[in-house]
Amino acid sequence: MKRFFKIVGILAGLGILAVLLMFALLPWMDRYGATDEEIAASFAGDELVPTPRIFYTRAISINASPEEIYPWIAQLGADKGGMYSYTWLEALIQCPQTNADRIHEEWQGLEVGDKVLMCPDENMPPAYVVAMVEQDHTIVLGHKENESWVEVWLFNLVPQDDGTTRLVIRSRSAAEGWFWDAIRPGEFIMMRRMMQGIKERAEK
Known about the structure:
Elements: H1 2-24, H2 26-30, H3 36-40, E1 54-62, H4 66-74, H5 87-92, E2 115-116, E3 128-134, E4 138-145, E5 148-159, E6 165-173, H6 178-182, H7 184-203
Antiparallel strand pairs: 1-6, 2-3, 3-4, 4-5, 5-6
Helix pairs in contact: 4-7
């Protein structure tokens, strides 16, 4: 019995240590891949949540033009191209979806007001709403409460002189409560894979 409790104690300690480590890494997660200039830059959609409680800017270089990358972002959604992330993890949290491996023309007409589903059930979690669209440049998704934006998710494509493109993804959220802080490490893991998934598809 003592050995059992010792093992349980060790496992609990390791679990607590893992959680503390993840939260210690949040500053790195919140600026993953982004330069100081990209973090300081202003992007379309920033003004929708002027005083966020949670803020991050992440970026990745893609060896493709904005015109080649944009269609993959435009078809994001559980009912369309998926999220290009870990399907096994999505299934584990009861959010199964399939990631597209080609561009679907029928999913390219993204417009302001359209819904972008995170899970097949648009209410769990609530679907994002398209706030802004600039073809081949910017897509801004968000959530509203009482007609005011409380969270926005910005996708920006910034062409570089060497022919590559920087995909800069930013989140600004006014959400309060421990829950939104607790899920941030998991959200980063899924987001990082999504960024890589977009890169892999666009570079093909």
